[in-house]
Amino acid sequence: MTTGNDSAYFIKARQAGRPVVKDLPKFDLDQYIANYRGKTRVDRLLLIGTTAPLLAPEALRAAVTEAKQGRDVGRYEAVVAAIREILPGDINAVPDSTWIDRINKQVKAESDRLETELKGYKNNLIKESIRMGYDDLGQHFHRTGDLINSVKAYGRMRDFCTTASHVVIMSLRLINVSIDQGNWLAVQTNVQKLRSPGQLSTEAQQTAAKLSAAMGLALLASGNFREAAQEFVETDPRMAQARLDDPSDAEAFNEVMTPNDIAVYGGLCTLASMDRNELQKHVLENGKFRTYLELEPHIRRAITFFVSSKYSACLSILESYRSDYLLDIHLQRHLGELYFQIRSKAIQQYFIPFSRVTFAALASAFDTHEHTIEQELTSMIKRKHLDARIDLVDRVLLSKTANARSDVHEKALRMAKDYERTAHLRILRMEMLNAGLEVTDKGKPGANTTLENVGLDTFHGGASIANWISEGIGRSLRSGLRD
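The structure assignment produced for this chain is given below.
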C-alpha cells in the first residue's frame, strides 16, 4: 500500500506551489481536533491530510469517520476523493455507496417533513411558528451542506423575528454559514448589523466575543491584518473560559475557532501590523487579550522579544511553529505574507540606527544566509517597505541620507514662487476691477457675476488667466476708441 509519505500527490503539490509540511507539528492530532466541533473538524482534518505527508493516513481516516457521523454527503465524498489520490490502496478509498444512499434518503425525507411543517405554520399565520420553521430548515440545510438554501431560509426568517434575541440568533446563524461559504463580506455585514445602535440589546452584548472573533477572521481572510488585529485584541475574555466539550455552552465558538486560535491569529496580526510601542500598549498591557495569550505562551514570548528588540529570538519562535500554522485552515493562505511583514518590520527596526550594514551582519542577526537576506531586502525595497539602497559590489545596505540644506533651499524656492504667483494674481485682479470688467450671463435674468464672487482660476474652463485678461482689456480699449 502506498503511504502518505511517498505519495505522488505531494510531489505534484510541491510542483504546483502548494504548501507541503515535511516536519511533524508540535500538537497531538487527537487532542488538537478534540477542541473543535461540527463541520470544521472534517475540514481541518482534510487540510492536514492533504498538506502533511506524515499525518496524512491518520488525518484522512479520522476525517472519514467524522464525515460519516454527519449528514453532509458532499464533504464525505471530498474526503474519499483525497484518500483515493493519497492512499489509493486504503479501504476508505472506495466510497460507501450504502451509507450515501441511506443518508440521501434521510436528508430528502427530513427536508420534505420540514417544508410541510413550514407550510402548515404559514397557513396558521403564527409568526413565531413560521420563524422557528425557517430556523429548523436553515439548520437542516447547513448540516447537510446545502449552504445556499440555508442562507435563503435564514434570510426569509428575518421578516418573522419579533424580538432582539431572534435577530441575534438569525445573524449568528448567517455568520456561521457565511464562514463555511467563505463569504467574508457577508460575515462583516451581519456583524455590523448586530453592532448597530439599534441592535445593542443584552443578547447582542453577550455575543460580543463571537462577533469580534468572526469580524477578525473575516478581516484576516481579506488580508487586512491591522484591523483584524484590533478585533482580536479586543475580543471579550469570556470566550477563553468557555467549556469546549459542552455544546450547550453559549460562550463557545469552537464550531469556527477556539480561544487558542484567537491568541495565535491576534498575535501574528499584531506583530505584522503594529510597531513596538503599539505592541506594548495594545497587546502586552491589554487585560482582555492577556487572557488569550496565557493559552499560547510562545506567542506572548515572541511579542515580548520583538518589543525588546530581540528580533532573532522572536523570529526563531515563529519559525519553530511554522509547521503548525501551515496546518491551520484559516492561517495557511496568509502565513507567508504575515511572516514576510513581521520580518520586514524587524529588519526596518534593526536598520534604523545605522547608515550602512553589511549583508553578513544582517544574515547573522536574523539567523539566515546572505543570499536569502539579499532577496528579502530587494523585495522590501520594491514594495517600499524599506527606504534604502543595495550595493551589490560591497554587499552592503545603505540608508538614503537626506540633505537638509538642499531640502531647505527647495522649500524656500517653492515658497517664493507661490508668493510671486499670488502677488501677480492680486495685481491682475485690481487692474481688472479698475477697468470695470465683469462677467455677465445675459441668458439668465439676474445673473451678474463679478470678479469679487468668482475665483480667477475658474474662467474659461481653466484657460490662461493672462490671455483672457489681455483680450478683455484689448476689447475694452477698442470699444473706448470707437466711442
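Interim note for the steering committee: Strands lie at 356-358, 388-391, 396-399, 439-440, 448-449. The first helix runs from residue 8 to 15.
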